[in-house]
Amino acid sequence: MRHVELLDVSVAYEGEGRPAIHDINLSIEEGEFVLIYGPNGAGKTTLLETINGLLKPFKGRVVYKGREVNGNAHVLRRRMGYVVQDFQFDPLSPFTVEDLIMMGLNAKYGPLRYPSHRERKKAFDIMDMLGILDLAQRPVGKLSGGQQQKVLLGYSLVKDPELLLLDEPLSHLDGDARKYVIKLMEKLNKEGKTVIVVSHIYDEFSLHKIRLVKMDSGRIVGDQKGV
Amino acid sequence: MSDLLKLAIIASLLAGASCSILGVFVVRMKLTSVGFATSHAAFAGAAASLFLHSNPLTGALVASLLMAIVLGPLSEKAKLHTEIILGVIFNLSLALGFIFLSLSPSSAFNRSVLSLLWGSVLGITYDDIVILVSIFGIIIGVILLFFKEFEALLISRRLAEAAGIDTKPFFYIILFMIAIVVAVSLRLVGGFLIYTLLVIPPASALQFCNRIKSLFWVAPIFSMFAVLGGVLLSFKFDFPLGSSIALLSGGIFFISILLSPKGRKYRMSLRRCAK
Q: Whole-model pTM?
């Protein structure tokens, strides 16, 4: 079944003459593992944020499991997990690791609805799985870049999303942590989740199992599977 | 202590608590000009009401709510940061306010409009206290009802949106609550003190709190300290009440920075990095 489909999509940022991505046609099947790579400014982040509806195309359509993303973005985003690239937390941030992870979980529910006790317990299991359980009560702003990256991963995984959009999730991570996160992504993909990851580090992935999409100057210039 | 003074203290405490609770949003979401611009929009509204021979409080409320309504869409339409739009609204409000003042025939009218800017805390009645208590109750109720959405907004509007929370309606609720509190408190404590109570206690609380929840009770405590201390200071040295409260709030802020465990650790890590 088709999970995400971009049909002739062009997106431009306000005040910029040139579109950041143009005439993109991309179809991603359910359960696929897609790695997007390319030089800086190729349009990789724009592509991810167009898929989850944070950016609206001025041309073309984005379809998520048969539903238009435009007009349903908030509801559909509750089914997606998104790791934002290089998010900066200031050192005075008045929230802990637990607060941020729970925010990811709470987002799954609309106003006046709350997650069950069991789901809240699962949030702690995810922190444990990512090795950040002992940091649960620590303010996020005080953590290292690598620890913050894991917290953001937890925030996106906690709602058990169907689709994972990960923007440079390996940056700030050391060798062992990188291997662990790659294994985790592959495990989640095996469990049936569709994974779309933007990464400039791609030689550590099991390339023969995944689809590689190359972008340059806002266009898809390469698309191959099982390299 | 006279009844009038008791009422003045209770009103200042209530306005301080409401303002500092909403100030948590103002400080965390970097909307510091919102209080300033809203109080001047209310001033322009009150001046327009007097010119049209109607109730100044109604005019103040309408103008500040109107500002809350146009602020969000205007900054989105103009693709400008909210602070810039607030700067424009502030100047326009002030200009309109003075134009209406110049058109008003009586100097008594002018005095009553100007008291909106500077407040008249000793002219407070029991009805004013009832209004302030009601507004305080409404603010607490709304925040408790949508706490998870407001908490997400305070953590990061971008991360909240990315997770699937539609932050826009909650952002507008915050602007509305600020507009109502400012319009109602304006006549009692004045625009000057509102701005102080909206910004300084939450900024001080931010130095100590590691949780959003704790900001919502530490900020009002700081505000109440400043209000009570300000009253004592005003009594002892015959200073104006608003200025005394503002002075003490500022003192609490600077002491908070000096004692802040967050700031200390941050400064230490910067020093380590420099070495």
A: 0.88
